[in-house]
Amino acid sequence: MKERKVPDVVARRLPRYYRYLDDLLKKQIYRISSSELSRKMGVTASQIRQDFNFFGGFGQQGYGYNVEMLHKEIGAILGLYSGRKTIIVGAGYLGHALANHTNFKKRGFMLVGVFDNDKAKVGRKISDLTISDYDGIADFISENQPDIAILAVPRTAVKSVAENLISLGIKAIWNFSYTELDEQENVVIENVHLSDSLMMLSYKLNALDD
Amino acid sequence: MKERKVPDVVARRLPRYYRYLDDLLKKQIYRISSSELSRKMGVTASQIRQDFNFFGGFGQQGYGYNVEMLHKEIGAILGLYSGRKTIIVGAGYLGHALANHTNFKKRGFMLVGVFDNDKAKVGRKISDLTISDYDGIADFISENQPDIAILAVPRTAVKSVAENLISLGIKAIWNFSYTELDEQENVVIENVHLSDSLMMLSYKLNALDD
């Protein structure tokens, strides 16, 4: 299936669709009408059809979408069946929390290594992995060819660590370090800004008080 | 300033504007043209004007926006100067990571308590607070009147903990528990889905390979 260029705002809805379809499957719901999907997702039915048309429409027939098929196709578009090898750099509280985040495995990401430059942490277990010395990361990457690095390092370290990882062949960076990394050629970056969501909560709370 | 009803998609851009203006101030940049703001934010200049018009337009004059003023006004709209009292429930790795998240304080949220039901954790320090027993949370809330609860509890516990906190008077829940909580009357909820962002990274990585 060859896709048209997908606008960022459409692409960003895909994980939500996927997550919602996942919930439906868990509830053993195998078929859903576009109006029901629309109601649950808070997106108009026409928006859903427009979104899905970017990917060939997913063949809605008669009384609705086939949930299993839709789930599988969106999962494939999101690259969830590629078994992407993933490493975590930074084994502090956040690194631990992310390593224990069971959804990553469920979403098809293979966590293959955790690194820290604190020698006191090296050798300890985190989830089912042993923390490795960041000094040895070049050899590890060269041998194991991971694609994705999760950065849970202090903000002062993020730029130099990211540059190092990119020079070693990492192609995707999930950055939790509160310092925005700029996109660059042949590397994809997602900067996570947790406090955006807290600010939204605060905004909604203010609106509630009005 | 009385606001028109602000669409969710506009409101969700406010934290990004705020964060970006924050960076400008750190770089001692005090004035920015709408085209420059547009370029940096990846939003059209006309979109920015439309967004700002919901809040009275922020009086762009001659050669651009006053960064300090814009920062302050958007911060006020986001409720960042209210010193909202905030508690964390769940003192595992994620709870620790969130307690140490310096941006919360910088954004005006006052962390006043951390709770866990694991007696082995009670009494330990986390950031500059001492972990309290979840059993005593009713008294704490009644005495201290926090508005916001950050939930970093296992997904199996999230619904019962949320119900309990709401019955005790908590008005806003920032939910990290991978189980979506539904909005309800007089309570605002932000469900954080970290893996959405990982799925987007995977999507962009796939597009890179094409």
TrEMBL record, chains A, B:
Superkingdom of source: Bacteria
GO MF terms held by the record: DNA binding; DNA-binding transcription factor activity
InterPro entries membership: CoA-bd (IPR003781), NAD(P)-bd_dom_sf (IPR036291), Rex_DNA-bd_C_dom (IPR009718), Tscrpt_rep_Rex (IPR022876), WH-like_DNA-bd_sf (IPR036388), WH_DNA-bd_sf (IPR036390)
Subcellular location: Cytoplasm
Entry keywords, A to Z: Cytoplasm, DNA-binding, NAD, Repressor, Transcription, Transcription regulation
Location of the CoA-binding domain: 79-180
GO cellular component, one term: cytoplasm
Record-annotated DNA-binding residue ranges: 16-55
BP term (GO), one: negative regulation of DNA-templated transcription
Binding site for NAD(+): 90-95
The protein's assembly and partners: Homodimer.
Annotated family: Belongs to the transcriptional regulatory Rex family.
Known function: Modulates transcription in response to changes in cellular NADH/NAD(+) redox state.
Protein name: Redox-sensing transcriptional repressor Rex
Natural source organism: Qingrenia yutianensis
